[in-house]
Design goal:
Layout lengths: L1 H8 L14 E4 L3 E2 L2 E2 L1 E18 L23 E5 L4 E9 L5 E9 L8 E9 L2 E7 L24 E11 L2 E11 L11 E2 L3 E2 L6 E10 L2 E16 L2 E18 L2 E11 L15 E3 L5 E3 L1 E12 L4 E13 L3 E6 L8 E23 L2 E20 L2 E21 L1
Antiparallel strand pairs: 1-4, 2-3, 4-5, 4-6, 4-25, 6-7, 7-8, 8-9, 9-10, 10-11, 11-14, 12-22, 13-15, 14-15, 15-16, 16-17, 17-20, 18-19, 20-21, 21-23, 22-23, 23-24, 24-25
């Protein structure tokens, strides 16, 4: 096995995003205040996503999602796959009004909708101090992304896209300080995950999520803080109920020459729908022994450091951690692969995800990057309660290792 890993590490492939003008662009000849009245472009980020699962049960996952590790499974067989589903298409336009106001619009797709189906990533219009449409949720920091090949990202990262109405402006006219207020569509991507089921049913949501953020930016980088407030509706025992969710995120990026350090931390209750590796699994809340619905506490964070060994050769080091848990849950289902497993009552659940990445990347030229990456993660699950009058105490841990490689060409 060690020889196989060393052989794969001898390969070179990776991904990076370059902020440069698109090759296919158009600007009108007429102008307003010295700027073209209309400017548009079409571009693509062509991404080869390749990966070899050394062990750990993520053979069917296109990304290194620690939350999808089944701690009860024992299949550690290797698996090699490649796809192009992470390729992105992007249409952009800038329009200058007669009054000198700039209107920006973007539509962006990828092919991650299942078996290569096209999926909408972004579609919004930005003007004056408003952004309306679908884009990055403001609870996260859209200026952050560790330069890695696997595209799930570290646990506790917040990279959710949602329809929203955002207002942003400077504070007291100082361009180094900005704030944002947003109403985001409530996230309802609830899936029956297996392994642990909170036994709540999804209900229609009735209120948007409120997000408020503040950002300070200088030449050395930036710092950002955001908060979120949610009202989450669920059904339990065919009866509707709701609970409150709230959270805090603190993030930043520090730059020196080409090198950079990025970090983000999150803490709250009822915010798992926003957190990488557990979004969509229905963990926002749970039924309590008292018969109420309560929001699930969670916290965690990630950090990355990118170091340039030469102007073209660089490495990234990333670590991440997430924990979420219940306190006095009334009932939950443990799925160990047996559909006849009993329901556990009057218990607790504790989930911990850890994650680490190291890679080597090479910028062949300014629009092409490739490299190789080693991904490692571990999922820990502790639970206790009673099932049919019998005490249940169980602790399961499973890790996974993947070698990711890829290439991105930007035009």
């Amino acid at each position: 096995m060690k020889k196989a890993i060393l052989l794969m590490l001898g390969m070179v492939c990776a991904t990076a995003v370059h902020a440069q003008d698109r090759f296919l662009s158009y600007a009108s000849k007429d102008s307003v205040h010295g700027a073209p009245k209309f400017k548009g472009s079409f571009g693509a980020n062509i991404k080869l996503n390749g990966y070899y699962d050394v062990f750990g049960g993520l053979q069917d996952s296109e990304t290194f999602n620690i939350g999808k590790i089944n701690v009860f499974d024992t299949d550690d067989s290797g698996s090699f796959k490649m796809d192009m589903y992470q390729t992105q298409l992007k249409f952009e336009s800038f329009i200058m009004t007669d009054g000198g106001e700039k209107v920006y619009a973007v539509v962006e797709f990828d092919f991650w909708g299942g078996n290569g189906a096209m999926r909408l990533r972004k579609a919004y219009v930005e003007f004056d101090h408003w952004q309306i449409g679908q884009g990055w949720a403001s609870f996260g920091d859209e200026a952050l992304w560790p330069n890695i090949m696997e595209w799930e990202g570290p646990p506790s990262g917040v990279w959710v896209r949602s329809p929203h109405i955002k207002y942003f402006n400077t504070i007291a006219g100082d361009p180094d300080w900005r704030y944002i207020i947003a109403l985001d569509a409530p996230l309802a991507d609830y899936n029956r995950y297996g392994e642990i089921e909170p036994l709540l049913e999804q209900a229609h949501q009735t209120t948007p999520d409120l997000i408020v953020g503040v950002k300070h930016e200088e030449g050395w980088g930036h710092l950002r803080m955001s908060t979120i407030f949610r009202n989450i509706n669920y059904k339990y025992n065919d009866e509707s109920g709701s609970f409150r969710g709230y959270g805090l995120s603190f993030s930043g990026k520090l730059k020196k020459n080409q090198n950079n350090f990025q970090f983000q931390g999150t803490v709250g209750k009822g915010i798992t729908a926003y957190i990488t590796s557990i979004a969509g699994f229905g963990y926002d809340g749970f039924p309590t022994i008292a018969g109420d619905l309560d929001a699930t506490p969670s916290y965690g964070g990630w950090a990355s450091y990118e170091h340039f060994w030469t102007p073209k050769l660089h490495s990234n080091f990333v670590v991440g951690y997430t924990r979420f848990y219940t306190d006095d849950v009334q009932r939950f289902l443990v799925d160990e692969g047996d559909p006849n497993n009993p329901i556990v009552v009057s218990g607790d659940i504790d989930h911990v995800h850890t994650y680490g990445i190291v890679n080597v990347m090479y910028d062949h030229f300014n629009r092409m990057t490739y490299g190789i990456e080693l991904d490692y993660g571990q999922k820990m699950l502790d639970l206790n309660g009673t099932a049919e009058g019998v005490p249940i105490v169980e602790s399961q841990t499973r890790d996974a290792m993947r070698i990711s490689f890829g290439l991105m060409f930007y035009f």
